[in-house]
Design brief:
Elements (H helix, E strand, L loop, with lengths): L2 H21 L15 E3 L2 H11 L10 H9 L4 E3 L4 H4 L10
């Protein structure tokens, strides 16, 4: 094989490989749905529950509404609040005598 034919064969093979990779269908990247919810955990309610439990006469310990409005502006649509069941059911760890 002459050098020119060998070079032409290499060019044809490389071109065929490039075209083959372009012809392979790629999986489409799923676009995010508009129904997903972006959220954040807010643990300040848990610490405020301790304050309210220890000092029941103290008022105004909750988060101001502007805090949640600011979170909504930043794209958070869901606020997850941790719950300490000992404040809701104080005798829960005592068990059942029945």
């Amino acid at each position: 094989m002459t050098t020119i034919r060998r070079g032409a064969l290499i060019v044809v093979i490389v071109a065929a490989l490039v075209l083959a990779t372009l012809a392979i269908p790629r999986p489409r990247v799923a676009e995010p749905a508009t129904t997903w919810m972006r959220g954040i955990n807010v643990a300040t309610m848990l610490t405020q529950a301790v304050t309210i439990y220890d000092h029941p006469t103290v008022t105004g310990t909750g988060e101001p509404a502007i805090t949640y409005a600011r979170l909504r502006e930043r794209g958070h649509r869901l606020i997850r609040l941790p719950v300490d069941w000992t404040f809701l059911q104080p005798g829960l760890d005592a068990g059942d005598d029945a």
